[in-house]
Specification:
Length: 320
């Protein structure tokens, strides 16, 4: 086993990982670093009517508390994307409105001079809400919600529709897959340092440094050469680190606002609500074949859940 880690050319990072020398996104040391902690919503749907951050702002070591009331703005955000009635298709833009889409949604970002002080101050953030009734029953939602429209959501048909039904041999099955949450050992984390208004260095948990760089460029309207993203080690991802999440843009925003380097690490609980998951899916499959095993028809349809602000489609039927 030691040979596999230390001597195998295909495991060039193995020695650094097993000896503890590998540095992950939250472990990079930067002078005068500050710490970000997110405070989350306590309702699943509705809107914020009152925010009370006075106690949090006055807590020891706090530099700023960002909410929708003092949102400094992100140049690449599109106004109204997440507003009620707006079309989906965009990741959640944190703090750009009082709307609440899910339980635990970040409603405030506290920046303080130590992690412990940031955690304490975040606990002091209070909010009052206009609560609405969330819809969490898959079967009931399917009866009232219209299917998504657009070319990518249309049925794909080739040849004779339902040909499998007329085959000498046929099989039909229905499969239900529960939500699967990717929760790797390394928590999602980001360490950010701005050098002026138009140059930034980011240590990020990402499975795609170029895509992360592009997303940051687009969000903050920066030149490619002015966005440096480092991710030499990733402590597991399962696909959750293939995109740039809202909390990461929020950390960049906070670092720019305070003029300080910022480190933001999600809690284990937040890993279940802030970095996506494989959605609940119900699939129906029908396959028809000749008696000697030649497939002559296949039918595959799937229904799955998506968010209230972004249309995500699980690729359940792509292979068939």
């Amino acid at each position: 086993m030691s040979r596999y880690f230390f001597d195998d050319d295909d495991r060039v990072t193995g020695k650094a990982i097993v000896t503890g020398k590998a540095k992950y996104a939250a472990e990079h040391e930067i002078d005068n670093i500050t710490y970000g902690v997110l405070a989350g919503s306590t309702i699943a749907k509705g809107s914020i009517t009152v925010m009370d951050i006075k106690a949090a702002e006055k807590a020891p070591g706090v530099l700023t508390v960002i909410t929708h009331l003092n949102f400094p703005g992100v140049p690449g955000y599109e106004p109204g994307v997440n507003a009620k009635g707006a079309a989906g298709g965009k990741p959640l833009q944190l703090f750009d409105s009082p709307a609440i889409y899910y339980d635990g949604q970040p409603i405030a970002l506290v920046i303080a001079d130590t992690f412990e002080r940031a955690v304490y101050a975040a606990s002091l953030v209070k909010a009052q809400y206009n609560k609405e009734q969330p819809q969490t029953d898959f079967a009931q939602a399917g009866k009232s919600v219209e299917p998504l429209e657009g070319a990518r959501y249309k049925d794909y048909i080739r040849g004779e529709a339902d040909a499998y039904k007329n085959a000498p041999v046929k099989i039909e099955a229905e499969y239900t897959l529960p939500i699967e949450v990717h929760n790797p050992m390394e928590l999602h984390a980001i360490t950010v340092k701005w050098d002026g208004d138009d140059k930034v260095t980011v240590y990020e948990k990402t499975q795609g440094v170029k895509s992360t760089q592009k997303n940051i460029m687009n969000a903050f309207k920066l030149k490619e050469e002015n966005v440096q993203v480092y991710a030499p080690f990733v402590g597991g991802g399962f696909g959750s680190a293939l995109r740039t999440w809202p909390h990461e843009i929020a950390a960049l925003m906070a670092a720019q606002k305070t003029g300080k380097a910022v480190k933001l690490v999600l809690t284990r609980n937040q890993m279940f609500t802030m970095v996506g998951y494989r959605p609940y899916t119900k699939q129906k499959i029908g396959i028809g074949a000749t008696t000697d095993g030649k497939i002559v028809g296949i039918h595959h349809e799937a229904d799955s859940i998506t968010s209230l602000y972004e249309n995500f489609t699980e690729g359940s039927v792509n292979v068939s």
